[in-house]
Specification:
Structural class: alpha/beta
CATH architecture: 4-Layer Sandwich
Low-confidence stretches: none
Radius of gyration: 16 Å
CATH topology: Metallo-beta-lactamase, Chain A
Helix content: 10-25%
Strand order of the largest sheet: 1-2-3-4-5-6
Distance between the termini: 34 Å
Bound molecules: fe (ii) ion
Strand content: 25-35%
Number of domains: 1
Number of helices: 7
CATH class: Alpha Beta
Order of helices and strands: EEEHEHHEEEEEEEEHEEHHH
Length: about 200
């Protein structure tokens, strides 16, 4: 799918607008603090936003999702354990379909209990589960280092190495990178054991 990556708000959040090839239906992932960058991108591309998806409930990712839904008619989508107000609950393996594209929900707890990644077959939108060069915090309420290790090693690393990782924050040296490259350079992925993983700063 076509990916537009936008920086929103004061915490280097990434927001994403996805559309299928030759399609006008779109999915927004984590509109974050403000709707104007996404609404502008959607308007410029002639995109009709169908879904506004939260990778997890944290405020910096979801503050404007409802406002975006009202402005576009999109449905707010979140994991079934999400505490935010939403229209459609999703769980691991569920698929959101557009005209010519689709994205699969992959449940990846660890940063929060409602954390999900979205996979369109080529690109993985990881929220605060996986950043370029590190993973998300596990010391906030609902966080779990054991779950994070399992999500990274038993779920995300099973995807093809050519998958492009698109994180929820611009914290890395590049805004996106393939999973194969991250597997070698990101210490939270290259850690061979849970004990090694816990030592990553
Ligand atoms: Fe977060």
């Amino acid at each position: 799918m076509r990916v537009r990556q936008l920086v929103v708000g004061p915490m280097q959040n990434f927001s994403y607008l996805l559309t299928g090839a030759g399609d006008t239906d779109g999915i927004v992932i984590d509109s974050g603090w403000e709707t104007s960058p996404i609404l502008r991108a959607a308007h410029e591309g002639g995109v009709k936003v169908r879904y506004a998806v939260a990778t997890h409930h944290h405020f910096d990712h979801t503050a404007s999702l409802k406002e975006l839904a009202v402005a576009t008619g999109a449905k707010v989508v979140a994991h079934e354990r999400s505490p935010i107000d939403h229209d459609t609950s999703v769980a691991d393996g569920d698929v959101l379909r557009l005209g010519t594209g689709q994205v699969r929900i992959i449940y990846t707890p660890g940063h929060t209990v409602d954390s999900v990644c979205l996979f369109d077959g080529e690109n993985l939108f990881t929220g605060d589960t996986l950043f370029i060069g590190n993973c998300g915090r596990t010391d906030l309420p609902g966080g779990s280092p054991e779950d994070m290790f399992r999500s990274l090693h038993d779920v995300i690393l099973k995807l093809p190495p050519s998958t492009v990782v698109y994180p929820g924050h611009d914290y890395g040296d590049v805004p996106s990178r393939t999973l194969g490259e991250e597997a070698l350079s990101n210490p939270t992925l290259s850690a061979a054991t849970y004990r090694e993983f816990l030592k990553v700063p």
